[in-house]
Amino acid sequence: QEKSCRLSAALLGEGSEISQEQLYELLKYAALGKCHNAAQPSWCRIYHQRQLAGVVVVVLHEMSQLHFYRFYLQFRHLRKVFRHRFTLPPSANFPVSLYGEGANLKPQNTPQGLTSTSSECITKSSDLQCDPIIQRYGVKKQGLTSYTLTLEEQKKNDYPIEGSPGCKGYISTECDQQRTDSSPLFGLDCEMCLTAKGNEVTRVSLVDARGQCLLNELVKPESTVWSYRTRFSGVTKKMLLPVKTRLSDIQTRLKKMLPHDAVLVGHSLNSDLQALEMIHPSVIDTSLLFARSEGRRFKLKFLAKAVLGKEIQCEQKLGHDPTEDARAALELAQFFIEQGPTKVVAELNLEMLLTAEKLAEVSQNKAGLQPQGRGFQKQLNEPPPLSKPCFLDCLKVTGQKPLLLGRQGLDSSGLSQRNLSASNKQILQRALEDVPLSKFSIIEFSLGPEYIASHLHAGLHEKVRSKLTDMLTIYAGPFEENFCLKSVKKEFGRCGPIQSLTVVTETFQPYVCIQYEVLEAAQLAVESLNGAEVAGSCIKVQRPVTAAMLDCNVLIKELELDVENEGVIYVAGLKKSLTETDLQEEFSQLKDLETLFLPKDLQSGKHRNCCFLKFQKCQSAMDALEAINGWTMKGSELRSRNALAAGHLWRWIWQMNHSNGKQGKHIFYEKMEQLSDSEQHLRKKVKKLDQHIKKLYRSLQNNTLCVVLFPGIN
């Protein structure tokens, strides 16, 4: 059965708010998988990431959550197709917060006036010439003899040399220096222990050019062992007890196995040859082959992962496997020889990958580089993790080109550069052509500069706040002159948490105005108490009648059908003394119950008298509605209905209710006429934008992760 990629993020209530860092986790893992230190996001899970066809991020420039709910009915496709919705906090530098520092996204003007950008896979020639690998080996591909260490390089890097004072008694492999580009390569690696003599070999491995193991032998040290270094070597005292092989035996076997023109390959091979007390003239040292400026060297583990895509020296294993290390060093040398310096520098971009490695390892107290020599590795001074790497650049390793289409590009500092000559229609047409060719695409649409003026945004905010307040408000009455207000509050309180309750005295008979904290409570009051007898009077329950509320019933119906609310029901009438554990136990008999969310006052932390229940199946939610209505729990009668507000919307409504919305309200009135004139046109623009997203979405391949972002203006 073919596995398909899917995203699981069944969050409800307070879990519907995520940070920029969490979104960064999602996009990074979706783009890279487990390569380059990318891990599953901490807050959701992508199943079968390898089956992911691509990632498309649609950015609605300078639009926010405010626009989404102001034009909720116009975003018909967006709200019906995208099943997961989360609130993000604002960011001062939105692109950097999502993709990381140093994004190499540089705008190029296209004939259509678009800003079309790709992460360049080939470094500029001037940068190429400055790279230490290019300076050492040149840009052209050469044979293996060009990468073997010269006599001077061997002396400089502490290799055992014939006739050197420190090499007295060392055994020569008796191989000559008549090597050619077709000479055979052999990978060599040793594990050492610490003895009274210094570093002595405890295990040695040799592999041939095909990676086949020719030698993998334990060696008994001559001197008293001070430390077996089991954590790194994997060798224990018990393992060496039955061993009879000595260093001299290994030296003899190596001399017999190596042909006269053999080239030994290893990572910091000088340490291995010193421990073996052997001299060999033809060597390739992969720690020097890939070395950076000022003699800095990459760890073998890092190179194996970044270059070969292999995991070695895994923490689950006890110590290093010398055969695995010898094979990795051999394959690194073969890769370098076959691909050439230019491709290694330009396409692998190891410096950038190292930055990712360092930042990941700082948190785990590991080092991303190693100094010269392998005996006692020292931690380098790590820079503080002030920034996170741009994971888009990591795609270069696999030859992928991230695509940016929109009215603005990003330079290397993350600053915007505008190009307002392109229309959303032009951007869409280019996206339909280019997105299928890219693994990671960022498509940016905009309403245009005329719709992002501060007074228009402020006016929109006031209209949305006012409409939400009206939707949360109900009027009930008429009541008798001396009605019991306490009874009214108790009855309407069974529908959900009340924000405020006031008596309306301007009418012939008294009415009450009740503002709820959640939309479901107000709707439940209208549905269940209209025409009911409350406090001795048969009352009518209705919402305020204003121009903005004429489409309230349509909006309520669409909210109820929102994919975010599928399988979610609202339950009111709970006693505040009940805890989440109590409710879990009480509702445990309901079939397919997946999640329970108990809202609380965001200031006091106290629970409200309502909760939300999410079910795995819509039918189970409908069955639960029938079962719960009229259900008595701890002496309190429960009321229930389908949910209207997703978790992020509930938090937003609460924040609006508890902010002083009336302050400075008079400022908006003089702008309202101008806003009304432009808002009709704005509705058409938003509706068109929704259609663009629909066309783009329908053109995507199966198993594509699509994210739509409303980054806001701050």
Layout of strands and helices, then pairs:
Elements: E1 6-8, H1 20-32, E2 45-47, E3 54-61, H2 65-70, H3 76-81, H4 94-99, E4 108-109, E5 115-118, H5 125-130, H6 132-137, H7 151-156, E6 171-172, E7 185-195, E8 198-207, E9 213-218, E10 225-227, H8 230-233, H9 237-240, H10 247-257, E11 263-266, H11 269-276, E12 278-279, E13 283-285, H12 286-289, E14 297-298, H13 300-308, H14 322-339, H15 341-348, H16 350-362, E15 369-370, H17 391-394, E16 403-406, E17 408-410, E18 416-418, H18 424-434, E19 440-446, H19 454-472, E20 473-477, H20 485-493, E21 498-504, E22 511-516, H21 519-529, E23 533-534, E24 537-538, E25 540-542, H22 552-561, E26 568-572, H23 580-586, E27 593-597, E28 610-615, H24 618-628, E29 632-633, E30 636-637, E31 639-642, H25 647-657, H26 666-699, E32 704-709
Parallel strand pairs: 3-19, 3-32, 6-12, 7-11, 11-13, 16-19
Antiparallel strand pairs: 1-2, 4-5, 5-16, 7-8, 7-10, 8-9, 14-15, 17-18, 20-22, 20-25, 21-22, 23-24, 26-28, 26-31, 27-28, 29-30
Describe what you observe in this structure.
This protein has about 725 residues and is of the alpha+beta class. Among the domains are: about 140-340, Ribonuclease H-like superfamily/Ribonuclease H (Nucleotidyltransferase, domain 5), CATH 3.30.420; about 565-645, Alpha-Beta Plaits (2-Layer Sandwich). Helices cover about 35% and strands about 20% of the residues. The protein is built from 26 helices and 32 strands. It has a six-stranded mixed sheet with strand order 4-5-16-19-3-32, with helices on both faces. Helix 13 (about 300-310) crosses helix 14 (about 320-340). The longest helix is centred in the C-terminal third of the chain and has 34 residues, at about 665-700. The protein is elongated and about 115 Å long. It starts with 5 loop residues before the first strand and ends in a 5-residue tail after the last strand. One of its GO terms (cellular component) is nucleus. It holds the Pfam family RRM_1.
